[in-house]
C-alpha cells in the first residue's frame, strides 16, 4: 500500500532547497554534521543579494554609518570584558535512558524512545563558545574563541574608527561576518545553526536619546524587510518586558517572522546603554570617551544595536517565496516568488532549440548583452516548458526566448525581437532586443 502520510510544508521547502541548489547538508557524503550547512549556487547568490541589500541600505545610502570587517578570532580578554566567558551559556539536560541532550527550556514533549517518559539529569550550564588555541602550544595561555557575535569587534575598534572616519555622534559602525555558537540542539533546518552569519550595526548616540533612536531603528528595520520581499502580514514585533531585559538594556524589540514551524526571531534591536564600551574601557585601560567639540561635553556613548541573521533572513525569504499553483487539474507549478532585487538569477536566456545554430548564435548575443547588467543564466536543456518550470523553481523573474521570429522568418516586423516571460503571471510579451536592458532595469526598480 502506498504511503499516504501528508508531506508538511517545511519538508517540501527543504527538498526544494537541495533540488535547486539553495542549501546542502555540510559534509553530506560523510553523513553530514549537525548544525552546519553549505549554500549551493542559488543559495550563495541569495545570501550575497541579502548582504548587498543590507549593506547598500544601511551603510552606502546613509551618511551616518561606516563599515568595518573584523577578525573572527580576537584577544580572549574581549570575551571576558563582554561577559561571554562567564555567562554565555544555556542550561543543558541529558536523558539517562536514550542519551538525548536538550536545552532545559526546549525539552521534547514526546515519550522517550526507550519507553515511558524521559529520565532527565539536573540542568547544568553549557558555554556556547567554540574554543581553540592560537600558536603551536596548546595550553590555557594560548586559548582563544571563535566569536559568538560580530558586535564586540566594533566596540573594541570604536576609537580607531572614530578617528579615521570624521564622524560625529550620532553615527554607526556596521559589520557583516561569520559567528559561531555551539548550540546544544540545532534545529529547524538553517534557522538555528552552529555556524551562521550576522549583519550588525552599532549606532552610537548621546546618553538620554536612547528611546527616540531605538524607536527610529525599529521602524527602519521593519520597513527594510518589506523592501526585500517579506510580506507585512508575516512580520511582527515582540517587545521585551522589563524583567526580560538584560541588566544593561533599557529596551529591546525582536522582529519576528511567521515561519512554517512557528513565529520566530529574525532580528533583535536593543538599546544597550554604554555597557560594552564601559566594559572594554575597564578591561583594557583605554579610554572610550567621546568629546563633542561643539557642546564641549565628554561622555561614553550609548548604543542602539540592530542585529540580524543572514541565514534566518534567507530562510524566511525562501519560506515566503515558496508557492504552489494549480495550472490545470493534476498539474501543479512550484514557483519561488522572490522579490526581483533578491532573486538569485534575474533573467534566463533560452534558444528555442539547441540544435539550430542560428538560434543558438542569436541567443548567445542576447546573453552577452544582458550579462554585464544582471545575474543572467543560459539554459538550453529540455523543451521550453521544462525550462520555464526549472527557472520558476529557482525564482528567476524573467525568461528571454530566442525563436524563429527573432530571426525574421515570419516577417521583418518581428526581426530582432524576443519573448520576455514573467515568472509570476506567466505572461509573454514580444519586445525588441535593443530594449531589453532598459526594460528589465525598469522592472527591477519598480
Task: Describe the fold and architecture.
With 446 residues, this protein is an alpha+beta fold. It folds into two domains: 9-79 and 146-318, Bira Bifunctional Protein, Domain 2 (BirA Bifunctional Protein, domain 2), CATH 3.30.930.10; 345-445, Anticodon-binding domain (Rossmann fold). It is built from twelve helices and 23 strands. It has helices spanning 9-19, 41-60, 77-82, 84-87, 151-156, 158-165, 210-227, 275-284, 310-321, 357-370, 384-394, 436-445; strands at residues 23-25, 37-39, 65-67, 89-94, 101-103, 124-127, 131-133, 143-145, 171-180, 195-205, 235-239, 251-259, 262-273, 290-291, 298-299, 302-309, 322-328, 331-336, 347-351, 376-378, 398-402, 417-422, 428-432. The strands form seven sheets. The chain has a seven-stranded mixed beta sheet, sandwiched between helices. A five-stranded mixed beta sheet has the order 20-19-21-22-23, sandwiched between helices. It has a three-stranded antiparallel beta sheet with strand order 5-4-6. Strand 17 and strand 18 form a beta hairpin. It is globular. The protein starts with 8 loop residues before the first helix and ends with a helix.
Topology diagram in text:
Blueprint: H1 9-19, E1 23-25, E2 37-39, H2 41-60, E3 65-67, H3 77-82, H4 84-87, E4 89-94, E5 101-103, E6 124-127, E7 131-133, E8 143-145, H5 151-156, H6 158-165, E9 171-180, E10 195-205, H7 210-227, E11 235-239, E12 251-259, E13 262-273, H8 275-284, E14 290-291, E15 298-299, E16 302-309, H9 310-321, E17 322-328, E18 331-336, E19 347-351, H10 357-370, E20 376-378, H11 384-394, E21 398-402, E22 417-422, E23 428-432, H12 436-445
Parallel strand pairs: 3-9, 19-20, 19-21
Antiparallel strand pairs: 1-2, 4-5, 4-6, 7-8, 9-10, 10-16, 11-12, 12-13, 13-16, 14-15, 17-18, 21-22, 22-23
